[in-house]
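[step 3/7] fold_predict: job queued, chain A
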Amino acid sequence: MNKTELIAAVAEKTGLTKKDAERVINATTETITETLVKGEKVSVSGFGIFEVKAREARTGRNPRTKETIEIPATRLPAFKASKTLKDTVAK
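[step 4/7] structure written:
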């Protein structure tokens, strides 16, 4: 399912217009993104937790030249599914 299909599905389930559903989805994703940028978690009960994970700097190797390179530290978004979501998908 892509974003357009998600918008159509939300519009159908809620009775909203597609434009209103798109605004809701865009506002939701923007809010989650802004919260993660601040370094905070977003917990959606029954769905899961969006959080930022820190990956430390490490040494890697260029596969072409076999040269050792330093990979810098970075922050990555992560999602941990709730038990409810896991159980529902597993059925």
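[step 5/7] annotate
The chain has a mean pLDDT of 96.
The first strand starts at residue 42 and ends at 44.
exit 0
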